[in-house]
Design brief:
single chain, about 220 residues, alpha+beta, globular
Length: about 220
């Protein structure tokens, strides 16, 4: 889940589009609160992890320059534990916006806190995927996405860059050899159901189903 950091951080929240996107893809999504006690049960009982957008403070050493002046939140500790746990268990991970940045930074990437001309919710821009990547297989070569973020990956570290905007901004990353581990910078949950980017939800659910089947076969 995200929280209402702009108005006191007193509520968990998440756009309905996250839940609807997973449901249309054949899965069921459940909101996870920022309580460390949830980490174990979620790792044990859930087939995949989707981390969502939000505004909250990330470690200063994750940035190539000055860090963002974002509010503190309990989210980060829980999110890091979940991302590491799901990756370690070979379970699929999809990070959206801030979720992508956490996934990337935990794998050696560096962020920038200021991306020119990328924080206008009413504007769109074109993204081109990189041939041969998982993302390209899911969404195609080009797609038009929303422009709604202040931060981005500037040094990929151990991540594969799988899409960029025309100005070079990293729009998606993935982890090589890690099963399904994908991050996108745009907010797919705010786009129409038939948008080509909805392929990331279908990919997540398909990977979760496949991973679950392998675990059941191994257990038996």
């Amino acid at each position: 889940m995200d929280e209402n950091t702009s108005s006191g951080g007193t509520r968990y929240e998440a756009a309905k589009g996250y839940f609807a996107g997973v449901l249309r893809a054949g899965g069921l999504a459940f909101g996870v609160p920022y309580e460390p006690a949830t980490v174990g049960p979620v790792l044990e009982g859930f087939d995949a992890l989707m981390t969502v957008g939000g505004r909250y403070a990330m470690p200063a050493d994750w940035y190539a320059g000055a860090p963002a002046a974002s509010p503190q939140a309990d989210r980060l500790v829980v999110e890091i534990a979940l991302v590491r746990g799901f990756l370690g268990a070979g379970k699929p991970v999809l990070g959206i916006c801030a979720g992508m940045q956490v996934l990337a930074a935990l794998n050696g990437a560096k962020l920038t806190a200021s991306v020119p001309d990328h924080n206008d919710k009413g504007r769109t821009h074109e993204v081109r995927t990189v041939a041969g990547t998982r993302l390209a297989a899911l969404v195609g070569e080009r797609l038009t996405v929303n422009t709604f973020h202040n931060e981005a990956v500037v040094e990929p570290g151990g991540c594969v860059v799988s899409a960029r905007a025309a100005d070079g901004t990293v729009e998606a990353i993935e982890l090589a050899g890690a099963g399904f581990a994908l991050g996108i910078q745009w907010h797919q949950e705010l786009l129409e159901p038939d948008h080509p980017g909805a392929g990331v939800f279908r990919g997540l659910v398909a990977a979760a189903s496949s991973s679950s089947s392998r675990r059941r076969a191994k257990a038996s």
